[in-house]
Write a structure and sequence with these properties.
The protein is an alpha/beta fold and 356 residues long. It has 15 helices and 13 strands. Bound molecules: guanosine-5'-triphosphate and magnesium ion (MG).
Length: 356
């Protein structure tokens, strides 16, 4: 799953990236886009790995992208950044709460609430542009389509018209059209307001003691998906030796490192479920959006698996742990045989059968 860190200029996006990605594999590509793979801790995976005596246990990863400021020249993003943005499953919107007179705010004064509202409207306008362009093209296609193709086109038209209505009313699509058939129709358009969103309030050093208070103040206004941390300080502490960092945190009166908490919040807003694949010597966790079918899940693992999908053998993690082994589960007839349209459940252990 991909998370793009977005926000207005100089809000601390790179500081947030550094705080969250510290200690994880990172790289910057030629276009200086930062990317990091961040492992999600997972107790079920550890236990499953032990049960099947896996030589290698591979944790689910979130890929974090540190993007340049969006909506600067009338476009959301360009080039590589536009691709990462469009592909992202979720967004972390960083807004500035820190004061720092030496870092001028592009709009003159610090007002995180205003910045959240502005950015949300930019995203709505961006999506409205996409939907309207698509509607124009589709309208022509549907009219000249053969009868058997017309129906699918008309379904898409209806979905897009509904999306346009929400966007014209200034409403993000995630509140109305996330999940289900409609979301599937809209999936490939890179619509920003359909993506999961975590608002991250980037605190001033002086306000660290009020983190929980500020977080709940913003939750009152913007809903549950809000986190707060002082990104610059967290990033600096993450660079220190662990003992040194503990000492500093104590002196500054700071609680635990914020990164794991924020990452957990981010993966929660993504609405992720996890399935597991113990294959050969490797046991692996796969985070996917709730509602994904076995066929789509197979595609996450390998395109060959999707193309050559036959069926999936499935068992719930808990049940497998109770039974004690795959062989025993099979003997007792507890391995379910599931087809392409099976909706993968959180904790499913899957064995995909396929041929190419
Ligand atoms: N005091 C304080 N300063 C911060 C914090 N986060 C970022 N800054 C400062 O704000 C400036 C911008 O931070 P960046 O992380 O580069 O912001 P950005 O959003 O990545 O900036 P662009 O990519 O240029 O849009 C830098 O001078 C940071 O040191 C913070 O939590 N507290
Ligand atoms: Mg930056």
């Amino acid at each position: 799953m991909d998370l793009a860190i977005v926000g207005p200029a100089q809000s601390g996006k790179t500081a947030v990236f550094n705080a969250l990605a510290a200690g994880h594999a990172q790289h910057s590509d030629a276009r200086r886009e930062h990317v990091a793979a961040v492992k999600i801790p997972d107790e079920r995976l550890e236990k499953l790995g032990a049960l099947v005596a896996a030589e290698k246990v591979t944790h689910a990863e979130l890929r974090l992208y540190d993007l340049p400021p969006l909506f600067e020249k009338g476009r959301a993003a360009s080039g590589e950044a536009a691709e990462s943005l469009s592909r992202a499953d979720g967004l972390i919107l960083v807004v500035r709460h820190f004061r720092r007179p030496d870092v001028p705010h592009p709009l003159g004064n610090v007002d995180p609430g205003r910045d959240i509202d502005l950015f949300q409207s930019e995203m709505v306008l961006h999506d409205l542009g996409i939907v309207e362009r698509r509607l124009e093209k589709l309208d022509i296609t549907v009219r000249s389509a053969r009868p058997e193709e017309r129906e699918a086109g008309q379904r898409e038209l209806a979905t897009l018209q509904r999306a346009r209505q929400y966007l014209e009313d200034g409403q993000p699509l995630r509140d109305h059209m996330a999940g289900g058939e409609e979301a599937r129709v809209l999936a490939n358009y890179g619509l920003l307001t359909l993506k999961a969103l975590l608002v991250l309030v980037n605190l001033d050093e002086a306000d660290i003691g009020r983190t929980a208070e500020i977080e709940s103040e913003f939750r009152g206004r913007y809903g549950a998906s809000v986190g707060a941390m002082c990104a610059r300080l967290e990033a600096e502490l993450a660079e220190l030796e662990p003992e040194e960092a503990v000492e500093f945190r104590r002196e500054l009166g700071m609680a635990e490192p914020a990164a794991p908490r924020i990452l957990k919040q981010a993966s929660d807003t993504l609405g992720l479920i996890t399935f597991y694949t113990p294959v050969g010597t490797e046991c692996r966790a796969w985070p996917v959006p709730a509602g994904m079918t076995a066929l789509e899940a197979a595609g996450r693992i390998h395109t060959d698996m999707e193309r050559g999908f036959i069926r999936a053998e499935a068992i719930a993690w808990k049940e497998l742990m109770e039974i004690g082994s795959f062989a025993e589960a099979k003997k007792r007839g507890r391995l379910r045989s599931e087809g392409k349209q099976y909706v993968v459940q959180d904790g499913d252990v899957l064995h995909i059968l396929f041929h190419v």
